[in-house]
Design a protein that fits this description.
The structure is a homotetramer. Helices cover about 40% and strands about 15% of the residues of chain A. By secondary structure, chain A is of the alpha/beta class. Chains B and D meet through helix 8, strand 6 and helix 9 of B and helix 8, strand 6 and helix 9 of D.
Chain lengths: ~425, ~425, ~425, ~425
């Protein structure tokens, strides 16, 4: 693997935590060149909610390729695209009463977020998007402005424009974020002008698995309506079943105006993204936002299979919720081992804030030594984050958690409590 | 196909010109649901330089999928990635004496451009990127600032920052663009501060197939060096063999500092992009620019096959150059049919400026009626653009050109010359 | 006065509240063309702290003009400038232990603020200035970005850059602004990057006479030092004796790094401004910030007289403080007449929040009918603001307050309490 | 004068070229503390077009002050303001058929420019102002963006927004600036969007005394009308008689939409500025752009005297034109002494480009030794600039020119020609 040091940019990152060469993946199991197997609690940062290489998706994709199905079709009509759109409408949109249009953006989350930000500004004629502390929305200049991480922001090399930052629910002790936003918007001399949109992750993936309440999301929607702004729910990491239902905001009695989706949307981890748009906001002119790879044809094939396999009834959601309960119980127990630690997140998007990045990093490193791929999250990398495939067998989920627990026990034996670090 | 009107965003575009449903592609031939065949002179806007569904790429990809090869691996090491990097180094970089590092960006051209712009700003500590009239670099906010098209820029919904615009070579009658840029940079009161970089397409794809000369590119490189700036050659549409050699600037005695690649890089039209970085400029910190889909694993497989199949010797380049000569001859003849028309472009990136968007649109529509998929280009859509697969059989290339010629002849019969339109 | 409607821009404002033509001013008394006299509780928005036409300043200025003293000297050395600088150093800076340099900016407050913002950015290499809700700092694009008022901001016609807004002390119920700022700065993923400076009015003049505590200002200074930022105290309206001492922050154990001064600095209401700069921050190159009218020569003459007359001992400050006590007592009594009303401000920068702009406007209009020039302040113009000359005779101060009280009594007779408006 | 080193900011500039302390000024003569007299060829950078301390202005101002006339009146109606407006309308606007409204901005040129830029953006709903190479418009952030000088721009400490730069007429050899601007505006993919306004100095004061032709200004006006933009003529340095007529663009058959005025507007060098606004563009809301010192009352008095004394017939303009002819002849002769040198400017705004800043600086320094106050101009400070009061006696003008000629002769004796420097 010397070629990586020789020829890949220093910007590479995950490979530094997991310095092996992976060769195979099947559901929650990764295999490296030496044949060693790993449990995958990272799942492509939630891009592999259905695990690696689902056999039905594989079969459909191989069939498509074998038959010279279109691999690249710009945004032209194809049979694969037709089938995906019809399935998405039938299985996802209609049952949830959603009138949203589907905008095929470039196949990355950041592109879907950029499209949402552009559309919100275009529709409202306003510049400012309100984003939240610890938010993560992407690396291109529009989305990067909405991303909180100082290091990543600095990578932009110039000032980032068009975003005002507010505390996420619960981010500041003693500050009722919603009340503060409302007070500032109601004060015509606050210097905080009415925004084009609120852009929020219902559960913050990179920012430490902070989960917004239904009250908070509904409150934002109310403020958005009051001030002529839009609500953008970035469900890129939290959506596609990660918290149980298809969208993370289901059951909260709130309907976002724009919904960027990516990561697990293709089902198989292929690059694919889309923006759901409230139909009256779909004021784009043809090609006003375009891109070569919008509408990945291979992803249409696998995404359709995923929708048909997992979302035509509530079986999968219930299975996820059952696993989430188990995960919550186990992680609570693990958190209890560490003085000051606390459980974070929601559904199968869970982690433990262990108090410092140093501790969390040490725990993850120890896990990897024992065959578990797992990463940290949070402003200080202080959260040990579990993003297992939703399809992981229960026994393997338990096995992975055992590895975490052992790593924690080993770490805390002989260490001082968090408060003293 | 009613689902498109019902559920796809108004932003869709190419499908409006070609209102059929494609189901198969093989080299330069597309097939629609009704079984009708089309010659493809659009080739995914140069994303399919090797045609649709190359059999060797297909086989390798099916093999990879069948064997549970990694489909999504973030930026971790995988066998597919190792093989791609080693092959790219061996077949492309080393023979051309290029020390560049490969940065895996998100799998779209705009992401590679954004990474280049960010890096240029980070390295130089300057904000401004010089871009050129009629340039097209992408739709996310950083790249959009560098894109010339007013309609697309307006889609951003807010002011775009960090870009100064200069005339592309030959864009303004009587203006020596290089001399003007130099004079402005030499004048400390010009208000045109030394930039972070010059960002240029060696041949402008969307902007009307304008081709920069070696003198112009070398001149920019000289100015870049004189003023501590970088030269970014956006070879997304013009690279990967489109003009003959792998890079469009080969043989011009100029080496860009940063080179965004995308479109045909995967070989098979899969979403894939990379940024080549002069090694001393690779000052990124780990993860400073990241993204879920950087390094598309399936694309690693097909891209490697493409490199091995087409670039280990100069056979393919010579074939392309031969076809380009034929294309130039035929298009010159066609241009001669239209008063005032002129040939544009270079290599297999060629077109005819027919004087107006109305004429060009009518010609392309007539072509499609006769089974040819072809599009316009240029600020006023005034160029009929030929972007056939480089692998197109000569007979089929001739057949497509016959269709164009017939459409032109039919159009000009009974119309007044261009000047009077 | 028909010429105003015919030829002056619609942007004119104060003349709309006081539709008479003033011809003379002497201390706190204005006279109109008809010979009617008015008590001046506006005092040029605190530009006339020493009243109109102080006889000693008049005499010195007439003497200067008569003797062909320099009226305009760019920033060249003149006897008037030398005398001013020496006096300012001797009377103001040295006794307060201030090492600050004096930067002669353009003769307006906004220019002094712009100079401070530019210098803070230049020194720190950072873009962002933290400004506060309800702040007012000027109308040119740099200062306007820091001004809170939405209407004035909209007048800029484009997005305003480089400012992040935080709640002023006490602006948001239940929000400890200082704690929130600190928490956001301590969180590397907050999206709130370390700023170049905090820009604050110790007492907000236009924003509703909100007064920051010593704890708050000291806290900002501590945060500034902790994060490598500067503290800019905009003492344009609150300085030059308005709150008692020369600077509004005296006695608070906090020393700002940059202090914009204007308004009453000339003593006689002539255009004059300066920026005080901590000497190690005086990194300007010669002429890096320049301007034709920086250093108004006539103002040097009158400002020197003012310093010598009022600030060589503490007599004037004590007189001001005595008047401020009287003012506070009287305004408290007046506030008590209005259900829900409350006293605002500090020193001789006082007012009553009467609950609505409608009420405050009606009170001020009634006052003017009875010969008192007085204006409102606050985000909703809800504060009746008293900015009498500090030199006003006590009897006249009482007389003006009697007019306010009468207006309030007349207003509330027959009206419902505030809460019901 | 030790206080300057001790207490004035390093930013001070002119005093470095003229290290004496001036005490008196009368018409074109300055006197220093030691009683030495100087001829003033700088005239407050054109702020003293009527010389120092005009006796009629002095008398009127002393009379005003003696009678307790209003010194500071915000933007309230006063007798001095009424008289100024009526006189300005009668003497300047009506005879020239100008319907413009007068907007009282803060009393500096930069403030008048900022008001113009804001209004142009507000009226058109567009961000971009086109400014020109070597332009100088002020130091506050809005105007600074339009200023060309790199050093001054860098003083802003952050990116400057909202301005696109084009070559001034003749700035680039072989480039027809007007044709290029038109071509770029006509190209919808040029990336040069239709601007809010063109902002131009008819004669560039700081930028090297470049004078635009009537054709160029009319061409800009035509382009402005074609593209819905405004023409802003910054006549701050070139207006108020400096080129002969009151406005520098008189006799050119072009009427700007917005005209910032300052410098000599007060007549006596007092801080005073105004923006003339085509009446249908006067869409400001009351106080939308405000400021404490807009409408300097003392300046109203002296400005009115100046208008009545110099502009009620064409005597003064003809005298200026006669002096300008003499100046042109003498400077042409001087230029002929220096190989490669050339005459710059128009009217009484004239200079000689001597080929380098070093030469120009040396000439000016030698002049000062012989009692002439004179400065350089231009991107490289390469122009020796004559800005004598228009009221200078002819003999004194000749005397000053003799000093320049002697300095030039002394400089070139023993030096090599320009080309070799």
């Amino acid at each position: 693997m010397a070629v990586y040091a020789r020829r890949e940019s220093q910007v590479r990152s995950y490979c530094r935590s997991f310095p092996v060469e992976f060769t195979k993946g099947r559901n929650a199991t990764l295999t490296d060149r030496a044949g060693r197997e790993y449990i995958d609690f990272l799942a492509g940062c939630s891009s592999l909610n259905y695990g690696h290489n689902d056999p039905d998706m594989k079969a459909a994709l191989i069939d498509h390729i074998t038959g010279d199905g279109i691999a690249h079709g710009l945004d032209m009509h194809t049979d694969a695209k037709t089938a995906f759109l019809e399935t998405f409408e039938r299985v996802i949109l209609r049952p949830r009463g959603m009138e949203h249009k589907v905008m095929m953006t470039g196949p990355t989350g950041t592109n879907a977020v950029e499209a949402a930000m552009k559309l919100a500004r275009k529709v409202t004629g306003r510049d400012t998007i309100v984003a939240f502390t610890n938010g993560f929305h992407g690396m291109t200049m529009g989305a990067l402005a909405a991303t909180g991480n100082a290091g990543k922001r600095a990578g932009g090399g110039m000032a980032l424009h068009g975003v005002v930052r507010m505390p996420y629910e619960g981010a500041m002790d003693g500050v009722d974020s919603l009340a503060m936003i409302e007070a500032m918007l109601d004060n015509p001399s606050s210097g905080f002008d009415a925004p084009a949109a609120f852009l929020i992750e219902p559960v913050q993936g990179e920012g430490g698995l902070n989960a917004a309440s239904a009250d908070f999301l509904r409150g934002l929607k109310r403020l958005a309506e009051k001030h002529g702004a839009l609500l953008i729910a970035d469900d890129i990491q939290s959506g596609i079943g990660r918290t149980g239902p298809f969208f993370s905001f289901e059951g909260m009695d709130v309907m976002p105006d724009l919904i960027p989706l990516a990561k697990s949307l293709s089902g198989m981890g292929l690059p694919f993204a889309a923006l759901l748009v409230r139909p009256d906001l779909d004021v784009w002119k043809p090609a006003e936002h375009n891109g070569t790879f919008r509408g990945n044809q291979h992803a249409f094939v696998t995404a359709r299979v995923a929708l048909e396999k997992f979302w035509t009834d509530d079986t999968f959601q219930k299975q996820t919720e059952a696993k989430a309960e188990f995960l919550e119980r186990r992680l609570s127990d693990i958190a209890a081992l560490i003085p000051g630690a606390r459980l974070k997140g929601r559904g199968m998007m869970r982690g433990v804030d262990v108090g410092s990045g140093e501790t969390a990093g040490a725990i993850c490193a120890a896990c990897f030594e024992h065959g578990l791929v797992i990463e940290t999250s949070g402003a200080h990398d202080e959260v040990v984050k579990v993003l297992a495939p939703l399809t992981i067998p229960e026994a393997q989920l338990a096995q992975g958690l055992d590895i975490i627990e052992a790593a924690v026990r080993s770490r805390i034996a002989g260490t001082t409590p968090i408060a003293a670090e």
